Every structure is written in C-alpha cells, then in structure tokens.
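Lecture 7, part B: from sequences to assemblies.

Below are the input chains for today's worked example.
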Amino acid sequence: MKSFGKKRLFGSLKKSLGAAAAVVGVALASPVQAGDTIKIGFGMALTGGLAGAGKGALIAMQVWAEDVNARGGILGKPVELVYYDDQTNPATVPGIYTKLLDVDEVDFVVSGYGTNLIAPAMPIVMQRGLVFPALFGLAVNEKFKYDNYFQIMPAGPEPMTDWSRGFFSIAMAQDPPPKTIALVGADAEFARNAVKGARETAEKLGLEIVYDESYHPRTADFSPIVNAIQARNPDIVFVGSYPPDSVGMVKAATEVGLKAKLFGGGMVGLQFASIMTALGPKLNGIVNYDFWVPEPTLRFEGVEEFLAKYQTAAEGKGVDPLGYYLQPYAYAYLQVLDQAITAAGSMDHAEIGKHMRDAEFDTVVGKVKFAPNGEWAKTRVLMVQYQGIEDSELATFTKQGTRVVLYPNEWVSGTINYPYAE
Amino acid sequence: MRLDAFHVVAAAVALLGAAVTIFDLLPINKFAFFAGYVVLQYVVLATAWNIMGGYMGYVNFGTAGFFAVGAYTSVVLYNLMQAPLIVMIPVAGAVCALLGLGMGYLTLRLRGVFFAIATLALAIVLETLVVNWDYVGGATGAYILRAREIAPFGDYVEFLFFVMLLLAIFAVSAARWIERSKIGRGFAAIRDDEVAAECAGVPTLRLKLIATTVSGFLMGVAGAPFVLYVGFVEPSSAFNLVYAVNSIAMPMIGGATTWAGPLIGALLLGSVQQVATVTISSELNLLIVGVLLVFFVIAAPEGIVGLVRKWRGGGR
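Predicted structure of the full complex, as structure tokens:
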C-alpha cells in the first residue's frame, strides 16, 4: 500500500478543513432578516416517517400566519414562520432549535410534531426560559416539569390513563358490562404508553386480562394475532397501533370475524382520510379515539372556515385532504400563543407564560385551558364509533353521523351500536 | 513513537477546541457547537467503521447497533448511579468492544455480503432487545436531564463538543497508528487476499478480532454522549440506519484505505448535511449522500485522498 506523504497529506487536510469551515461559515453568516416582524421558529417533519402529518401541520400553520397577517398581525407586527425539516430524526432537533434562536433570532419557538421531536428541544427552550407550545406530545413534561410547556393535544392532565378512559367508560356502561379484555399493541413509543394506560385502568376496574401481547412494529400479517385473541374470547379488545398496523388489524378483524363486543381504542391512522377511504365499511362498529370529527357538538367557532382554507391549500400537495385530526390543533397552538402575546402586550416570555398558565383560550378546537403540567386541564380524547359507512368515498367521511361521538358526555352526538360483532 | 506534524496538528486542534469552549476566545455562535458536535461524532464513527471496512475490507452495516449500545450504556449508568459522562464514555467503549469481540467470534467465518448481512442482523437483534427492556425505557424511550452548565466550559453543549473533539482526535490517532503498524499491514493483507495472507503466516483470525474490538470500542464511545446531546433517546432514533449509511459513505467519499479518508469524508459530508438541514431543508437533503456517493464511486473510487494522489502524480 502506498503511503501518503506527510506534507501533502497535511496540505490537503488543511484544504478540506478550510472548505468545510467555509461551508459552515456560509450558514453562520446568513443575513438575519431585520424587520419589524414577529418570528416564530420550529422544526417540522417534512421528510421521514412522520412527513405526511408534518406537511399537513405546516399547511395549517401557514393558514394561521396568513389569517393573522390579514387582520394586521400580533401587536401590530406581521408574523413570519421560520422552519426547517427535522427529517423525523430527533438528533437534528437540538441543532435546528439553536440555529433558530441564535442565528435566525426568532422571537418564539414552537415544537414540531410528535413526542420524539418535542423532547430534544426541551433542554434548549428550558435553558432560555422560553414559552414552548407543543404539538401532539405524550407526557413529555413528566420528567422535565417545565412550567412554560403547553401541549395542545387534548390528552388531559394524566395523559397515560386519560387516553383510554373513554373506551372503558363506554364499555362499563353496557348491560351486562364486559368481564374480560384483550390488550394488544405495537412495540413502539405511543402504542406502549396507550396499552400501559389501558392495562392500569382494566386492572382498576377488575377486568380479567385474557390476552396481553405486543407485536413488532414491522409486522405485516395480523391474522395470527387476531386469531390468538379470538381463541381467548375476550369481551372487549383494546388496540394500541400505528397507521400501517391499524389497517392490518382492522382487515384481519374483518377477515377472521372477531367476535368481541367492543374493538378499537388507541388505533392511530383510522382518523386519516386515506386510511378511512381504504377501509370503508370495514370500519363500521369500531370505537376509537379521535380529536375532532364533523359532528354538531364539535362545531367550534372558526373551525369550518379553517378547514375550508386548509382543504384548498392542501390540494395536490399529497397531504390529508380533510385535515380533521392534527391540522386544527396545529392552527390552535399558534392561536394560543397569539392570544397570550396579545394579552401580555409584550414579547416577554415570563409574562406570556404566566398568561398561558392562567387563562382560557378560544380556539378552533374549542376552549383550551392548561393544567400545571402543561397538558389540557381536562381530557377531551373523544371516543367515536364508525357508523353507517357504506362506501369508500371521501365525501362519506365529511358527513355528520359517520363518526359518532360517544365520549366525553358533554360532546356526545349519538348512541353506540353494540356489540361490535353485530 | 516519534512525534511528527500530525501530532502537532492534533495538539493544536485540541488546544483550539479548549480555547473556544473554555475561554470563549472566538465569537462562535452556539449553533456551530451543536452542528460541530454532530460532524465530530461522524468523524469518530467513520474512522471506527474504516478500521474494519477500509483497512480490512469487511463491510459492517451494524454501526447503528454499536452506536446505540454505547448510548444505552449511558442510560443504564445514569439510571443506576447518575454516572457522569467521564464514566459513561469508557464503560460504553468497553461494552461495545466486548460486543465487537463477540460479533467477531460469531461472524468472522462469514465473508463479503454474508458478513455485511450478519452485522445488519446484529443491529436489528440489539434493537429488539432494547425495545423490550423497560429499564432503559423500552419502546417509549428514556430521558436524561443534562446539567445546563458545567465548569469551566459554561454551556454544557460546549463541553460535549470539546469531549467529542477529543474523542475524534483519539479515534483518528488510533486509526493512523494502526494503519502504520504491523497490525495495519496485516489488515491490508487480509483485504487484498485473505487466503494468501493466512498462507503467508498472517494471523487472520486474531487480526479480525482486534479489528472488530477496536472498531466496536470507538463506535461505543461515539454513542455514549448522544443521550446527553439529545436529552432523550428511543430505539428508532438510536438505531437509525442513517448512522450506518453515513459511516460507510464518509470513508468512501474521503478514501477508505487511509486514516485521512474518513476524516475528510466526515468533515465534508457531515458539514454539508448540517448546512443542508438548515438551508435546503427539504427532500433534497436526502439526495446529498446518494448523489455524492454515486459521484465518488464513478469518478473517484479511491475517494478524495485518491483524487489528490492522482492529482499530485501518484504519491511519494
């Protein structure tokens, strides 16, 4: 093997280091746009596993910025969104938020989508004492205990157990109430938490757990799992799953002819237009969590105007065409920030944080009030049942009555079809 | 060991690192420390990969597995005794060295694509173990609350940057020493023709075990500070395939047969990726590694070091 001359090597090394430094230098020297604007910075999953949802959230946030600027901005200043693609990779998040704060000099930061991408930003925002509105994180603040963290997903003050509370409330209200339960979930972050909460609630209620298994997130065939559940003959089945496995689980339940009386719970993805249209009538009877559905009890002020704008903006962009699940909340967490800045009358984060802790906010997802841990003061994880779905047309899922709200009581919009097997 | 220009440069870089992190001698933006940390982390990973892949010709697709085991060793130490980083790094290195040794025993009868697949499988097996191990957070992940400041560095991330800088210097120095030693010549013999090397008396099995152990050790030490940098670790990010892809791409781009290759490749590709994240910030990001790899495979199969050699008329 030829060796490389020391001097030459040192010379080429110097050149390479110089080139790399120049590249970094360009980034560091990017001109900070001066101007009388309020800059809001964030990372968002525009590529990677959560890109579909992340892009939808970004459109919703851009609709919010247009709305705010059309009415004259906040405190008389227009708002500007500064965002980067976090690639659904937590390792990119610390760098992105430091760049936003130190190079772009944003006035506020808000989180990207999802627990894994919120948590890595926490040490940075905490160090600087910033208010931090967060989008769909599950129990992120349990360890950090940061008083300026405000999470918009309506999981409630005890997110682990509040998530499945509605599912059990509905089950135990039936006559006769169920006695046995099967718990099944993916070996991944959200699903584990959802099933853990469901297990705790089932034990408290004295339900006999006849099946309690998890499966690998890349599982493709769910028939063996559903057959194993069927063999134990549980009264109800709680599932914690991600979009691909939710589809697999629903298809398997239909093919196997699952005989449970209640089926669903924490299945992510059944709220997405593409999955609803793919599954069509197979969804009938499933009781699953949701955050917003087009039912009369949930027509909050501004939500339909927002959805109309979102649906126009989303056309042809490969994102959820309805935008019922995440998008109203992506709009709402900026509304909360907007109202808090306006009420504080300044850009002082301590003042704004105090207002966010104390006040109640009117948003497109209804009234929002935060608990001391930054979660919603009262859970509003809806349990909805898919009913009367006869085709797979997108328009079907925009109709009232296809996803009937069964829980919480104040938002109920119909009655349950029970049992699921019928 | 004779001191030469390399050692002078290494010492100067370490001193410069200390100057900017401890004494804030240069007005460097904090973002540079965050981005720099990631680039230096790739210097360690690419150098570690190159000891097996470049020097010996055994392609390891399991970098993410070793990196994650290093990271999760830190989680275990933190949960057990709130151990400081200075303890996490050597222990993570030792655990990964043992893992490398074990992998060596189990897989070194395999060659070529079969060895590569076995290392990929190892990473998947390790991920499955971590997913089902609740003590380190399982599938839901684990948090480590890092201190905001640490004396004499001030900001904790500046400390992490300095630590990773020292680890990078150590990794490159070790790789350079190996390359120039008897061991390195043995590695090169295995890469050129393993059977011929064995016949010529090169202790191939022992050398392969040394390579997997040293490579594993370096990958482990690179993973140890990761949880403190991110503050939160969960299996899908720690075992992310991007670590494996980058640690292969960087030596390929820089030049895989010499210690300078992974260093140049990591500095170049790592910096471009960091800049692209906050400038291009779209799907185009993902193209960068692929396009650069294809370009270098076609135009410069021996990487940048090979190009420079050719440009200068074939080295010494």
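Note for the exam: Residues 1-34 of chain A have pLDDT under 50 and may be disordered. Keep this in mind when comparing with the next example.
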